[in-house]
Amino acid sequence: MTARRPGPGRALLCAAAVVAGSAWLVADQRSSRGDNVAPAYEGWENNPDGSFSLVFGYMNRNWEEHLHVPVGPDNSIEPGGPDQGQPTFFFPRRNRFVFKIRVPADFGEKELVWTITANGRTERAYGTLKRDYYLDNQVIMMNFGRATGDNDLFENNKPPELAIRTAPTLQAKVGVPIMLTAVSSDDAWPKPRDLPPVNPENPSGIAQAASMGLRVAWHVYRGNGTQVTIDPPQFKIYEDTRWGSPWAPGWVRPPVPDDNTWSVRATFAEAGTYVLRCLAHDGVLQNYEEITVEVRD
């Protein structure tokens, strides 16, 4: 199935409506493996210098399979690509607002097309400056599940602050762990809140919003993430409504360290170039930073 170009429709209602048919939103779709990845155009943001940022995410239709799709014919953005900073390691389920592409002030009616072929199926997302896809923090918060009417939150909340205390490029050897450190803090908007456990009267119920409050996790953004071990194990950053994820009933947010510092060890089982990302999220807004690791035998 190939996605259609975006038509009228407010981004906050379904930022990924560019994926044709939106079949991946159907609740009973439960493929564990063997399904594909649908890129999603989330919308565009204004930049202070007059340029714009086109924001993309994706839906890996699988519930279990993590897919590695290197940049190239099966993972390209055109024109100007194929490499424009997109991920190559795809977590299961919905992953929102994953990366941005800056385009000039005179971008006008042009479009960028992200094409992904995975498990034998090709789909595309079309990034444009159509006004229905305008993004601001309120739209992003609503896409992450925050209900309308919370004006104090919409006016006051800012993304978490985040800084990686590790060199932007590192060298590593296969099997030898390296230390990664990040510092993050938040403005206490929204008020921290964990999700209640599963309701025994409705055991199949799906959380409508994620756990609220600062959470930080390291993960693989580029490279074969199945060959990387991060210790301590990190929670799922994607919208798995069953377990181990901030969207899962009963999930408890890990405590914030006293010094607001998160350190992990990453071990690589295979040589190659990896991009690791640290993601700081307060439940409705996020921030991220990345490092590149060159791994040799």
Question: Would you mind describing this structure in some detail?
Answer:
A 4-stranded antiparallel sheet has the order 9-11-14-13, with no helix packed on it. The protein has a 4-stranded mixed sheet with strand order 10-16-15-12, with no helix packed on it. Strands 1-2-6 form a 3-stranded antiparallel sheet, with no helix packed on it. The chain has helices at 137-143, 151-156; strands at 37-46, 52-60, 67-68, 75-78, 89-90, 93-103, 112-118, 121-127, 161-164, 169-173, 178-185, 215-222, 228-231, 261-268, 272-281, 286-296. It is built from 2 helices and 16 strands. It is globular. With 297 residues, the protein is mainly beta. Helix content is 4%, strand content 37%.
